[in-house]
Amino acid sequence: MPGIKPECLALIVCEGVVEDARTHNKCILNTFNSISADDFPSRHDRLAVFMSFTDGRGEMELDVKLILHDGDDEKVVVGARGPLVFPENPLDVVEMTLDLRGIVLPKPGNYALQILADGTLIRQRRIIVKQRKKQGGDQ
């Protein structure tokens, strides 16, 4: 039904998600809340996003965006779009995994991972990107 947004039960950032072929249970590998890099721009080879939704009806367009908050400006670093399809029972839970590879992070700062359903923000979480402190005499 238009206008009814689903509930996002989980938004987990990690290195990967493995699904058991028999049970379809998920194993979430190496969760994290921040990324450290020596230099910028920095390439982050692998970032996986595990999402879980309920209370949805029918099919919606799902957008996942990694945003850099830079003062009053927001810059989309990477984004993905695809269908989010709910079974007939709105109480069912739909799980999805998105693998993002080779993300270029332009600079240290506050980033946000945003989840939108049919253009409406339903969940976001912060990811802090930091410059690694140099060791010894390299300062």
**Secondary-structure content class:** mainly beta
Beta-strand proportion: over 45%
Backbone shape: globular
How many angstroms separate the termini?
Answer: 58 Å
Number of helices: 0
**Strand arrangement, largest sheet?**
3-9-8-5-6
Quick structural summary:
The chain contains no helices and nine strands. It has 139 residues and is mostly beta strands. It has a single domain (7-132), classed as Immunoglobulin-like (Sandwich).
Features:
139 residues, mainly beta, Immunoglobulin-like, five-stranded mixed sheet, four-stranded antiparallel sheet, 0% helix
Describe this protein's structure.
The chain has 139 residues and is mostly beta strands. The chain has a single domain (7-132), classed as Sandwich (Immunoglobulin-like), CATH 2.60.40.3930. The chain is 0% helix and 68% strand. The protein has strands at residues 7-19, 26-31, 34-37, 42-54, 59-70, 73-85, 94-105, 109-117, 120-131. A 5-stranded mixed sheet has the order 3-9-8-5-6, with no helix packed on it. A 4-stranded antiparallel sheet has the order 2-1-4-7, with no helix packed on it. Strand 5 and strand 6 form a beta hairpin.
Layout: helices, strands, pairs:
Elements: E1 7-19, E2 26-31, E3 34-37, E4 42-54, E5 59-70, E6 73-85, E7 94-105, E8 109-117, E9 120-131
Parallel strand pairs: 3-9
Antiparallel strand pairs: 1-2, 1-4, 4-7, 5-6, 5-8, 8-9
